[in-house]
């Protein structure tokens, strides 16, 4: 057993760092969500912010966009040109994707400075792409409601998760490789 552990030390290290980081961040995020219940922002500050920023992007494309807290659910209702389109829920805010991204990067981390700046840049990129994704999805749902399942279930999740995958690949191939060579 000890020889297996030694042989696969790097794999065990990766798995432990990934799971430890993921579970810790998930726990902290769940505390945040619990503390947000009944607060000034519905359903929570981050989801509210994402909904309003998405509304601003939609409006910049020339549409009359509104987001209002749902009267009975923990979500924001998205309306374009007086037509109710969708609900923006906590899962739309991108935080769970960012937590997944951070966990993977930390599991492969070598040097603090490079890791920190890559995490910062990656989180900002994921957040920004998520806002654009929501805005374009909303406009697509407004124009092509018959493709709702395909757009919401396949195309737009593929965009955000595909980008995270590419960020991971770039990190492993370029950043950690250059750190090892230094």
Overview of this structure, please?
It is a single chain. The protein is mainly α. It is 71% helix and 9% strand. It is built from six helices and three strands; from the N terminus they run αααβββααα. The protein has helices at 2-7, 9-36, 45-60, 95-107, 112-143, 148-181, and strands at residues 65-69, 76-80, 83-88. The protein has a three-stranded antiparallel beta sheet, with helices on one face. Helix 4 packs parallel to helix 6 (148-181). The longest helix is centred in the last third of the chain and has 34 residues, at 148-181.
Give a brief rundown of this model.
With 182 residues, this protein is mainly α. Helices cover 71% and strands 9% of the residues. The chain is built from six helices and three strands, in the order αααβββααα.
What structural category arises from helix and sheet content?
Answer: mainly alpha
Side-by-side strand order of the widest sheet: 1-2-3
Low-pLDDT sequence parts? none
Helix-strand pattern: HHHEEEHHH
The number of helical segments is: 6
**Helicity range of the residues?**
over 70%
Averaging pLDDT over every residue, what do you get?
90
Major β-sheet profile: 3 strands, antiparallel
Morphology call? elongated
Query: What is the CA-CA span between the terminal residues?
Result: 34 Å
């Amino acid at each position: 057993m000890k020889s297996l552990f030694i042989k696969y030390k790097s794999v065990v290290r990766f798995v432990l760092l990934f799971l430890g980081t993921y579970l810790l961040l998930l726990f902290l995020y769940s505390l945040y969500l619990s503390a947000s219940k009944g607060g000034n922002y519905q359903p929570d500050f981050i989801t509210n912010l994402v909904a309003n920023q998405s509304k601003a992007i939609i409006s910049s494309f020339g549409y009359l966009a509104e987001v209002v807290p749902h009267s009975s659910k923990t979500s924001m209702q998205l309306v374009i040109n007086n037509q109710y389109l969708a609900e923006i829920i906590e899962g739309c805010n991108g935080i769970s994707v960012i937590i997944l991204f951070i966990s993977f990067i930390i599991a492969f981390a070598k040097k603090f400075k490079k890791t920190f700046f890559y995490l910062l840049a990656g989180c900002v990129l994921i957040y920004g792409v998520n806002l654009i994704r929501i805005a374009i999805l909303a406009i697509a749902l407004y124009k092509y409601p018959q493709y709702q399942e395909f757009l919401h279930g396949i195309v737009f999740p593929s965009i955000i998760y595909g980008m995270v995958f590419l960020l991971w690949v770039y990190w492993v191939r370029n950043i950690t490789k250059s750190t090892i060579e230094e």
